[in-house]
Each structure stands twice: as structure tokens, then as C-alpha cells.
Design a protein that fits this description.
DNA Topoisomerase I, domain 2; Topoisomerase I, Chain A, domain 3; alpha+beta; Topoisomerase I, Chain A, domain 4; 45% helix; globular
Length: 622
């Protein structure tokens, strides 16, 4: 498996955290505790933090039911529709807008859009020319004719009063009284209860996103060409409702009507609308813990598991195609190799200027790779440097097969830096070919397969039977880390990371002092018991022994936490864990090694993967 390509780098980077004394290598091995946490953990904790018992929730074990025929997703669906953004409340009269140094009264719609900019006045976005130009262009579209005549230069606009007003309002919200916070919480809970659930086939299912996003300024990721444009307010006339014919149709806002009401039981969405910036369709969907979402996840991972049966044949086929007489076949074969080896995304074609300049494997340009054929043993190395999904930069230098290297040289011949590397390939062609190789196979399935296989293999290598739970969790996070590296799931280190580490190391220092003192007291108690074996001395000795053991465990936990924090400061472990790793691998690992499942998945994640928690046994293998 290709995860072994990363093992060397993983081990080097993992040593960063080993500066902390008391790392696994220096920690005494812990024997299995007879009182280890049970592995059959409920999907949600039975008690709250304050100890109050929660009411048991209905669990729909849909995975034990027969699957519906064809493409039918449900037979009955009823819901209340989406919650729209509240109406705009005009600013108080004392909050002024200035143009060219003079107070100017704005119409309500013009003022509303101005507040979007004012709220971002101290943000980096408002220093960017593209953002400012797009905002000003869209802002002028909502102005009255009189306002358009006067407001012609954004640089002459003064939003400072508005900006300060919203800062003060933000502080007021932060400093709300306990009663005000409780009232708001109750209002939100009531709204959730009314709009946040639907009835599907006799079961009450939670809705994921029932609130429509309020109007604002588009930000995008990276240097998006449309940043600063106005995201318009969505009205019922923009929304399509999907529900059963025999259900109660949701009521739109007073004075409005829905764009359309349909009854399509072969789709999973409850409502849809098109946003105005990129023309993308937005959906109101069920919560990740719902049956529909769970079935999709289960099917995704089962398809990836099926790939294991034919992956060797597929790899042999694309290797044979590296020497094909047809250039399109060679390009497809090399792309498949890179997707398989490096877990690259296939990449979708985009219109120029529509989105940020992000690419995937099929849309790589000549400028995105460099070829190195050195004489020092590091031959046939391909260096990648491009912006991937969400504008995350992908930088990697990997050795490749000699024929792949020669093909890449051929693909680059007589091409400019901005030309397509695979000029006879796109994602549609690639996925069509993959479907011919295995039913349901796509580039994403290959990525999911390699990610899950990597986790399975790394867990097998890293988990030590004698380790305590914190040490086992460090092994789990390191296995997850290997997957995140493979899939390029990066993040910027938290701004307060240094302070967090400083506080953690201070705790470790204090705890070491406590352990040292406890060890000294234990020796003294042991000596006293040996010299005079009284019941009192025995009780003191046992008490000191338990205290020392407890402090040692606390120290180990803090040291492992510091190591884990250091190693993962720039890696997003959650992305792969929630989207690319078969949860049954993690559940089986927890059950096999007696690790509480809540150590791996929080309450929300346990609800999302309750099917896997119920389904997977300790001997499950991906």
C-alpha cells in the first residue's frame, strides 16, 4: 500500500513532539486494567456534565431493515420548510454614514448593504482591491438614483461610525446577563423544535441546516475573483419545497409563495434554492445522523471495500497502459497512478474567472510540476506545487516509476507553463473509465479506499497491547495523522498555540514536581511499614502508593497530550476521520483494544456513526 511511502516522513515529523520528556518511549508500560471502559458505548452519554440524566432517545436502526427498491429514498416526508433570515433593522439615528466628509442619509436597502462592509472594515478583506471593487459595484446596484449620483468613489465613504456601533453591539452580546442568555437559548430551542425536525417514514429525523444564510458579502477561499460581491437575501419565491403529496405543505412567509412545491421521493433534500454568486444550488438536508446520510456513508465505504478485491488488477492494467500507442490512454493511466499513489483529487473543470485557481489531478498544468532526474540516487522525482481544494497548497516531492517519469516528460514537451499537463483527459472521461473497471468506482472511491487502508495498516503497526488508554490514543492520532498527510488535510497552527503549549508545559512541570514528592513520601511510608508492620503503617503505605500511581497516570496523560498537540498543530485530523475513514475501523479498534469510543468520536460524531458502532465487531477488517 502507498501509505508506506509516507512512513519515513511521518517518523521524522513525529519526532518533533518527542522533545517532551515522558513520551511513550520513556513511559512505563501499563498492563491491561480489569476495569477498562466497556467497548459497547451508547451513541450519546447517559448523563450531562452536571450529572442530570438525559431522556433516552429513539434510535432508528435502519441498517437492520430491508433496503428500498430502485432509487426510492422515502415514502412519506413532512417538514415545516426553512427559516428565513430576519428582516433588516435600520441603524439608530445617531449612527452616521459620511461621504466626502459630509453626513449622508442612506435608503434602507443601501444602508443594509453598507453595514455588511462596515462589519468587515477591520478585516484584511477590505484592503484587497478585488474585494472593494466587487463590493462597490454590487452596492451601487441597490442604491436609489439619487444615491448613485452622489456616491461614486468608495475611498470617500466613511463607515467608521457603523463599524464602532457593531463592535459595541458585539460586546453587549458577550456581556449578556444569565437571564438573557437563558431566554435566547430557550428561543433557539423552540425554533429548533419547530423547524429542526421532519417526519420521514414514521420516524422523527433531525434536519441539518434549516436556517437560510442571511445576506452578506461573499468571501470565498484564497484569492477568489468574486470576493466582495453581494450575497442577496433569499425569499420564498427562490425556494423549491420537496415533501410528500399526503403531507402538510409548509407555509411560506406571509405575503409570499414558494417557487415550486414538488414530491420527488428519489432525492434526499427537503428544500433547495440557487445562490446568486456562483449559481450553485443550495439544499436543506437532513442531519448527518439521519438514515439517508447514514445509508450514503455506509454505501460509500462498502464500495471502497469492494475495491480491495480488484485493486491489484486495476493497478496492473494502468501500468500496462503506460506504454500504450494512444496518448489519451497514456495520460489516463498516469493520472490514475497519481490519484492512486498520492490520493489526489480528480479535479473539476471550471470556467475561467468563476472560482479561485484550484486544481486537481486532471486539471494540473505544466507549471504545477517539476521533474528531477538526478545522479545521486534520487532519480525520477516529481515535485508538485499547486492549490488544491479550499485553496490548500499541495507541495510534495515523490519518486515515481521510470515509465511514469518518461511519460510526464513527454506530456510536457513543447508546452507553455499555463498549458494543461493532461490535455486529452478530464474528470468525466476518467470516471467513465473507472465505472467500466468496477461498478460505482470513482476517483473519490480510490481516495477513500487508500485513506481507510492506510488507517487500518497504521493502527495494526502502532497499537501496543500494554499501553494505557492515553498512549493508545496517541497511536490512533498518529495513524490518523498519516492519513491526513496522504490526503493533504492541512490547517494553519492556531493563533494561540504557543500560549496553549506554554500553559500545558507548565502543568507538566508542576505535575512532575508532585510525582517526585509523592515518590519520596511513598519510599518513606514503605520504609516505615517494613520497620513496623502495623495496620496503620500499612494503610498509610497503600494510600501513598495509590496517590503516586494516580499522579503518574496524570503526568503520562499530560505528556501524551503535549506530544499529540505538537504533532498535529498544522494537520486537520477531523476531515479524514469524518469523510474518508470507514468508521467501522475505528469502532473495531476501540472494541479490540478496550478504548472508550467517546475518546475517538464526540457525541455528534457518535450519532452520525451509530450504524457503525452497532454493526462493527472487534474483528472487523476494512
Amino acid at each position: 500500500m502507498f501509505c508506506f511511502l509516507f512512513r519515513g516522513n511521518n517518523q521524522m515529523k513525529m519526532t518533533q513532539g518527542r522533545l517532551f520528556a515522558g513520551l511513550i518511549l520513556h513511559t512505563k508500560k501499563k498492563k491491561k486494567s480489569k476495569t477498562a471502559a466497556k467497548t459497547t458505548i451508547p451513541t450519546s452519554s447517559p448523563t450531562t456534565k452536571k450529572g442530570a440524566k438525559e431522556e433516552p432517545q429513539e434510535v432508528w436502526k435502519w441498517w437492520e431493515e430491508e433496503k428500498a427498491e430502485g432509487g426510492v429514498k422515502w415514502t412519506f416526508l413532512e417538514h415545516k420548510g426553512p427559516v428565513f433570515a430576519p428582516k433588516y433593522e435600520p441603524l439608530p439615528d445617531e449612527i452616521k454614514f459620511y461621504y466626502d466628509g459630509k453626513v449622508m442619509r442612506l435608503s434602507e436597502e443601501t444602508e443594509e448593504v453598507a453595514t455588511f462592509y462596515a462589519k468587515m472594515l477591520d478585516h484584511d478583506y477590505t484592503t484587497k482591491e478585488v474585494f472593494n471593487n466587487n463590493f462597490f459595484k454590487d452596492w451601487r446596484k441597490v442604491m436609489t438614483p439619487e444615491e448613485k449620483k452622489k456616491i461614486k468613489d468608495l475611498k470617500k465613504c466613511n463607515f467608521r461610525d457603523m463599524c464602532e456601533y457593531f463592535k459595541q453591539e458585539s460586546e453587549k452580546r458577550k456581556n449578556r446577563s444569565k437571564e438573557e442568555k437563558l431566554k435566547l437559548k430557550e428561543e433557539n430551542a423552540a425554533k429548533q423544535e419547530e423547524y429542526g425536525f421532519c417526519i420521514m417514514d414514521g420516524h422523527r429525523e433531525k434536519i441539518g441546516n434549516f436556517r437560510i444564510e442571511p445576506p452578506s458579502l461573499f468571501r470565498g477561499r484564497g484569492e477568489h475573483p468574486k470576493q466582495g460581491m453581494l450575497k442577496r437575501r433569499v425569499q420564498p419565491e427562490d425556494v423549491i419545497i420537496n415533501c410528500s403529496k399526503d403531507s402538510k405543505i409548509p407555509e411560506p412567509l406571509k405575503g409570499h409563495k414558494w417557487k415550486k412545491v414538488q414530491h420527488d421521493n428519489e432525492v434526499t433534500w427537503l428544500a433547495s434554492w440557487t445562490e446568486n454568486i456562483q449559481g450553485q444550488i443550495k439544499y436543506m438536508m437532513l442531519n448527518p445522523s439521519s438514515r439517508l446520510k447514514g445509508e450514503m456513508d455506509w454505501k460509500k465505504y462498502e464500495t471502497a471495500r469492494c475495491l480491495h478485491k480488484c485493486v491489484d488488477k486495476i493497478r496492473a492494467n494502468y501500468q500496462e497502459d503506460w506504454t500504450s500507442n494512444e496518448m489519451r490512454v497514456r495520460q489516463r493511466a498516469v493520472a490514475m497512478y497519481l490519484i492512486d499513489k498520492l490520493a489526489l483529487r480528480a479535479g473539476n473543470e471550471k470556467e475561467e474567472g468563476e472560482t479561485a485557481d484550484t486544481v486537481g489531478c486532471c486539471s494540473l498544468r505544466v507549471e504545477h510540476i517539476s521533474l528531477h532526474n538526478e545522479k545521486d540516487g534520487k532519480s525520477n522525482v516529481v515535485e508538485f506545487d499547486f492549490l488544491g481544494k479550499d485553496c490548500i497548497r499541495y507541495q510534495n516531492a515523490v519518486p515515481v516509476e521510470e515509465q511514469v517519469f518518461k511519460n510526464l516528460q513527454m506530456f510536457m514537451e513543447n508546452k507553455a507553463p499555463g498549458d494543461d499537463l493532461f490535455d486529452r483527459l478530464n474528470t468525466t472521461i476518467l470516471n467513465k473509465h473507472l465505472q467500466e473497471l468496477m461498478e460505482g468506482l470513482t476517483a473519490k472511491v480510490i481516495r477513500t479506499y487508500n485513506a481507510s487502508r492506510t488507517l487500518q495498516e497504521q493502527l495494526d503497526l502502532m497499537t501496543n497491547d500494554d499501553d494505557a488508554v492515553p498512549a493508545k490514543m496517541l497511536s490512533y492520532n498518529r495513524a490518523n495523522w498519516a492519513v491526513a498527510i496522504l490526503c493533504n488535510h492541512q490547517r494553519a497552527a492556531p493563533k494561540n498555540f504557543s500560549k496553549q503549549m506554554e500553559n500545558l508545559m507548565s502543568k507538566i512541570k508542576d505535575k512532575r514536581g508532585q510525582v517526585k514528592e509523592a515518590k519520596k513520601q511513598l519510599k518513606e511510608a514503605k520504609a516505615a511499614f517494613k520497620s513496623e508492620k502495623t495496620q496503620k503503617n500499612k494503610m498509610v503505605y497503600e494510600k501513598k502508593k495509590m496517590a503516586y500511581k494516580r499522579l503518574e497516570e496524570q503526568l503520562t496523560k499530560l505528556e501524551v497530550q503535549a506530544t499529540n498537540k505538537e504533532e498535529n498543530k498544522e494537520i486537520a485530523l477531523g476531515t479524514s476521520k469524518l469523510n474518508y475513514l470507514d468508521p467501522r475501523i475505528s469502532v473495531a479498534w476501540c472494541k479490540k483494544w478496550e478504548v472508550p469510543i467517546e475518546k475517538v468520536y464526540n457525541k455528534t460524531q457518535r450519532e452520525k456513526f451509530r450504524w457503525a458502532i452497532d454493526m462493527a465487531t472487534a474483528d472487523f477488517r476494512f
